[in-house]
Specification:
alpha/beta
Length: about 90
């Protein structure tokens, strides 16, 4: 899984949000971080330096609260070879 960060990236992309289904009923759609942690998948945080500070602060709180989520920086030219933790940031 991958998130392409930019200046307008918000926490909903990471954590999720409520959306209405075809019948108009509200349901929660999980964000990429929640899906990756729940399913045990890798999550690549591309261009993390472009994310707004509130997103970075929330990610920091998540990493602190959940002991088995690890963040690592990697070289984006060969990011597939440096994924040795749950979340990689380029």
């Amino acid at each position: 899984m991958r998130i392409n960060n930019h200046e307008q990236t918000d926490l909903q992309e990471y954590l999720g949000s409520y959306i209405s289904n075809e019948t108009g009923k509200l349901m929660f759609r999980e964000g990429a971080l929640v899906q990756a942690v729940r399913q045990g998948h890798w999550l690549l945080l591309d261009e993390l330096n472009l994310a707004p500070s509130q997103v970075l602060e929330a990610l920091n709180r998540c990493a602190t609260a959940v002991g088995d989520v690890a963040f690592m920086a990697c070289c984006c030219d060969a990011y597939a070879g440096c994924l040795s933790s749950s979340v990689a940031a380029c």
